[in-house]
Amino acid sequence: MKKIGIIGGSGFNQIEGIERLENIEVSTDHGTPSASVQRYKIEDLEIYLLKRHGMNHTIAPHKINYRANIEAFSNLGIDKIIAFAASGAINKSYKLGSLVLSSDAIDMTKNRANTFFDKDIVAHIDMSEPFCTNLQKAFLKSAKDANVEVTENGIAICTEGPRIETPAEIKFYEKIGATTVGMTLFPELVLAREKGICYISVAIISNYAAGIEQNKITADMLIENSRISSESINKITLNLHKYIEYSKTCPCENSIEGTVLNAN
Ligand SMILES: [Zn+2]
Fold first, then answer.
1. How far is the CA of 260 from the centre of ligand 1 (A)?
2. What are phi and psi of 150, to 5 degrees?
3. Which residue, of 46, 131, 167, 262, has the greatest Cβ tally within 10 A?
4. Which top CATH class is 2-262?
């Protein structure tokens, strides 16, 4: 049986159209994940969905136990994760409710537990190819089958939050190349890499970033656009089983090799 983990951001609560088999409570060495993990099955693929902000969206981005979330997937034997994140568009051409596949990332977080290697082992994980290209290909093929347009080559910047950015910050982020802004990509991406898990990130365009559009950003606006994109995500998810591979041919699994400076 093939397995895929999905991390759902704001608005994506469950997979519609296939039966949920169970909710799995997982405990980890780093505490409890954001929610129980929902298990589904379609053809030869098991899908495990974790709601990043908790079942009832009560956990703010800076309060998420990212280590527990990634370790939960690892403990369940999941070696591939597709992560969705509600994001603001810095690139004006992105449509609200659309999906942008990230190809690179910038970390602007300030105060988060951002590694599994903070005790006896010092490791500097390589980030020269931040996302798994094999999993990106599988995702894009599934989106094509689902008739969902996905914009490629997004550059995602991750802020500490929970406040929204200022117009000057967005102007700065645009200058350094970012096209979307969110609050949850880091350290999630890094922790997955440290565990040897293939990881890709899909930005859900829920609003335009500050200064890009005049309208004030409201919670209602964010939720409504997330709802529209949830339909797209659902359709893609139901096509994943055709393209997720049994064996890995990417380097993700061995990413920790050669990065450890000392080990007791
Ligand atoms: Zn990979």
1. 20
2. -125, 130
3. 131
4. alpha beta
Whether the Cβ atoms of residue 49 and residue 78 lie closer than 8 Å to each other: no
Ligand 1 center to 205 CA (angstroms): 25
d(CA 53, CA 31): 15
First to last CA, the chain: 36
Q: How far apart are CA 105 and CA 263, in angstroms?
A: 29
The model's pLDDT over 45-99, given as tens digits with 9 standing for 90+, comes to 999 999 999 988 899 999 999 999 999 999 999 999 999 999 999 999 999 999 9
Distance 168 CA to ligand 1 centre (A): 36
Q: How far is the CA of 138 from the centre of ligand 1 (A)?
A: 11
- Interval between CA 193 and ligand 1 midpoint (Å): 9
Q: Which pTM does this prediction carry?
A: 0.94
In which element (H, E) is residue 182 found?
strand 180-182
Longest dimension (CA), the chain: 55
Query: DSSP state, 176?
Result: T
**What confidence tens digit (pLDDT) does each residue in 151-161 have?**
999 999 999 99
Distances (CA, A) of 171 to 83, 175, 189: 26, 6, 25
Instruction: Please report how many Cα atoms fall inside a 13 Å half-sphere around the Cα of residue 238, on the Cβ side.
Output: 16
Q: Which of 118, 141, 135 is nearest to 79 (CA)?
A: 135
